[in-house]
Fold this sequence. Notes:
Blueprint: E1 27-32, E2 35-44, E3 47-50, H1 51-56, H2 76-80, H3 83-97, H4 102-105, H5 108-114, E4 115-117, E5 122-124, E6 132-135, H6 139-149, E7 166-168, E8 174-176, E9 181-182, E10 185-188, E11 197-200, E12 204-205, E13 208-214, E14 233-240, E15 243-244, H7 245-251, H8 259-262, E16 265-267, E17 272-273, H9 274-277, E18 281-282, E19 302-303, E20 306-312, E21 320-326, H10 334-342, E22 353-355, H11 370-373, E23 381-382, E24 388-389, E25 397-405, E26 410-412, E27 416-421
Parallel strand pairs: 6-22, 8-16, 9-27
Antiparallel strand pairs: 1-2, 1-5, 2-3, 3-4, 6-7, 10-11, 12-15, 13-14, 13-22, 14-16, 14-17, 18-19, 20-21, 20-25, 23-24, 25-26, 25-27
Calcium ion (CA) is lined by residues 134, 207, 209, 241, 355, 357-358.
Amino acid sequence: MTDARLKSWVQSAHQPACEFALQNLPYGIFSDPRNRQPRVGVAIGDVILDLSVLESAGLLAPDGAASPVFAAPDLNAFIALGRPAWRSARARITELLSADNTSLRDDALLRQRALVNMAEATLHLPVEIGGYTDFYSSREHATNVGAMFRDPENPLLPNWLEMPVGYNGRASSVVVSGTPVRRPNGQIKLPDQERAIFGACRKLDIELELGFIIGKGNALGEPIACEQAEDHIFGTVLLNDWSARDLQAWEYVPLGPFNAKTFATTISPWIVTMDALEPFRTRQPDQSPEPLAYLRHAGHHAFDIELEARLRPEGARDETTISRTNFKYMYWTMAQQLAHHTVSGCNTRIGDLMGSGTISGPTPDSYGSLLELTWGGKNPVALRTGATRSFAEDGDELTLTGWCQGDGYRVGFGRCTGKVVAAYPA
Length: 426
Ligand code: CA
């Protein structure tokens, strides 16, 4: 199914940099001027395949579906059918899009109804997200932040190497790529003033992360074993965990971030499935000390996903790539995060979103936040326009991209974009 030789009759899927090859087939929710109703599609080349059309035409029926699941404004009903249905749908869509399959290729009327130009479509949040949790699992990121704010000699807190540290985020403000992000107001404690002031965030930042979507929940009280945890994951998205560093620094003691993180979290519109990621599985970093038994798993549980962050100021033509990193650097794996999340008995539900934590690599150009890239604002990054940035300014458009490089094809995520708009008058 992930054979590099797979070819589609959708010619645009074979462009070298095309993120939506036949090997990818990510799921999303879209609408278009012909049909304003949000529904399920998969991205292939520069078009979207409308699965609701195929389903009603009798060409696509996932295992176990008693009623239509693709004429829906989110993917939750399809995901609830379980992995056999995900696999059968993927196999059938691959078949229908394959170069030598005629059933859709040679049916002009059906093709015209089922294929939508991506450039004309509006993409929506792909799942209904009941809960959002954010981890802190990049050793390089935690080390950088610890060195900046605590002790450069001893940057990691003692718990960090024992568990994937996390906190419960805010699901209601998770937005799809393209949604403007309003600069938050809040309490800021300036070093030269005795009391906090109230005002617009002055240190607005991004966090380059990968999110995963729960595909199979667990009952309250019943943990998910680390060895089985990947069976509970439907797929992955790019995630920008926007952060107000000045609000965060004042509010986070002792219960962790609150308003500094709750104003917006942007995700990419396409969910790249675990089946599509499978060829890019790789070895995770060595873990020392050996994790406690409930956090152990045999085999390879990291994924080789190239990641970039880009910034385009208001009115500028070009983006500047400000960071290049890779998901494979993550110290704690998605499986370990999910095992740790549920070991207390905490339940998860279909559609829940889990953020990896900022993904920083080993070199200064691979850091996943402006905080690290500029070292707290001390070393501003230079943009192609000649301007510099310590933190995000109003009008800046911040974009995350990500892709797995196969042999002659890409499994990509599309863009995860948000443009900063001015704060409400304080
Ligand atoms: Ca984060």
